[in-house]
Amino acid sequence: MEKREIIMHTIISGIESISQNTENVLRKVSTYQFKTIETKQQLIEALHSCDIFWFRLNHKLTKEILENSKCKFIVCAVTGLDHIDLESCKENNITVISLKGEFEFLKEVRATAEHTIGLLLTLIRKTKNAYSHVENGNWDRTQFQGTELYKKKVGIIGLGRLGKIVAEYYNVMGMHVFYYDINKQEKYENKYTAVNSIEALFKEIDVLSIHLPYNTSTHFILNEKNLNTLKKNALVVNTSRGGVIDEQALLNLLNTDKIAGYATDVLYGEPDIINHPLVKYAKKNNNVVITPHIGGNTFESIEKTELFVIQKLKKIVEQCQK
């Protein structure tokens, strides 16, 4: 008997378009439509009317939303999955397809590492206010005297895939690289300086660069106690997740001039940030820079990662249909 091909249907949310190569792969397993989803009810309805739901970071898929869903696959071309209730996915027999654990592939995806350096330079050279200063018709360079990164000590917390790439960039810029990681990194012991605790790392450095995965063990791992061991002139840059740092403790340090500044691409509770204390602080102060989780948002990285997860989806669907 001839095998009957099962064609699925995909709803794509928060993604405006996909590349031709990605479309060619997707069409082999699924029809698809782009859909604007603005409410929780619309999200629930979408998950009840598709086999595959494809999005990035624009929704939080909670237990309530996933319960009794008819969706079979969730596709998300990111590494951090704290916006998806993975336990509920398991309970509802939903397979999550992402970039988590795809270390070899991700070595070629460097957008977030580059953005980390950009955020730090924006902070240390005071360019946030310098832009608007000139746009308002002014030209007073004395207001924007900055600091160099050369020969400064940078501490990387989390020397995983992204941390290693960022360490290379800092090293090329002439910075002294220190790191703390729960896993021993023998390859880097001679090139960079390993430190055996978070507190010991904080006491050494001028810049803290955060590159941790977010999970239950790293939730608020940077807290009031260890953050208070940072030097008074320290700068902090975070392109990890907002949940790895106690933002209220960080804000207290900023308000009391115990650290010099914070640059971040992530906030705890994003995207609902209109009343976020750090956003309110940033509106009135030059020493906090916040971008809306755009670290991986480049044309190159999006095209590469989307094609990768759809190829991964195709393989899994084909295995399920055998």
Automatic annotation (TrEMBL):
GO molecular function, one term: (S)-2-hydroxyglutarate dehydrogenase activity
Pfam families (UniProt xref): 2-Hacid_dh, 2-Hacid_dh_C
InterPro entries: D-2-hydroxyacid_DH, D-isomer_2_OHA_DH_cat_dom, D-isomer_DH_CS, D-isomer_DH_CS1, D-isomer_DH_NAD-bd, NAD(P)-bd_dom_sf
Keywords: Amino-acid biosynthesis, NAD, Oxidoreductase
Cited CDD domains: formate_dh_like
Membrane recorded as keyword: no
Residue ranges constituting the D-isomer specific 2-hydroxyacid dehydrogenase NAD-binding domain according to the UniProt record: 117-295
Keyword Oxidoreductase: yes
Biological-process GO terms, alphabetical: L-serine biosynthetic process
Lineage: superkingdom: Bacteria
Annotated ranges, domain D-isomer specific 2-hydroxyacid dehydrogenase catalytic: 16-318
Gene3D superfamilies in alphabetical order: NAD(P)-binding Rossmann-like Domain (3.40.50.720)
Family: Belongs to the D-isomer specific 2-hydroxyacid dehydrogenase family.
Entry protein name: D-3-phosphoglycerate dehydrogenase
Source organism of this protein record: Lacinutrix venerupis
Organism placement in taxonomy: Bacteria, Pseudomonadati, Bacteroidota, Flavobacteriia, Flavobacteriales
